[in-house]
Here is the input.
Amino acid sequence: YYLQEELLIKDRLLLTGAVNQERSSVNGNDHKFYSYPKLSASYRLPVLPSWINDFKVRLAWGQAGNQPPYGYKYTSLPIGTYSGQLGAVPSTVAGNPSITPETSTEVEGGFDMQFFHSRAGFSVTAFRKNITDLILSASLAPSTGFTTAYVNGGDMRNTGVEYSFDVTPIQGRNFNWVSRTTFANVANQITSMSVPCFVTGGFAIA
Here is the structure.
């Protein structure tokens, strides 16, 4: 299910609100709906210098989900042979009947401007995204009968900024020259990991 509403006020202020609800058979609970709302606003400044044609500021917040891949809930039985007979054998990968989607929550803001009769433009965007319930594969003790299990464990944060500059040096009836340059910088950080601390070779690893 998806619902969105937009409100435009005097061609300057644009407000948007939406919510997305989804469920899937790849989730642990295939009857549960996961909700992902979003809100955004943008405003065009009414008073500008003569050399600036348009200046818009924007801010947005929203959530999104990343569903588990197929086979992470229940793993399939591999085909093998035993005493010359073909058949199914137990998998060494344990499925997770309680697995849930990853959830990302992002805040984004920036501005866009056009100047010199829209022959040049410049925009800046900064964002911060937090991802929770990361879907990972974890190693298990061989005594469990499995070697790997799929789990929801760990959080990650992405922060970044993007600059974009475009200019039209030549604009004619039959020929246009448009030049665009973009620079982006993104930093990723694991903020938590649901792996217990253990000792190996005299060193503690967390």
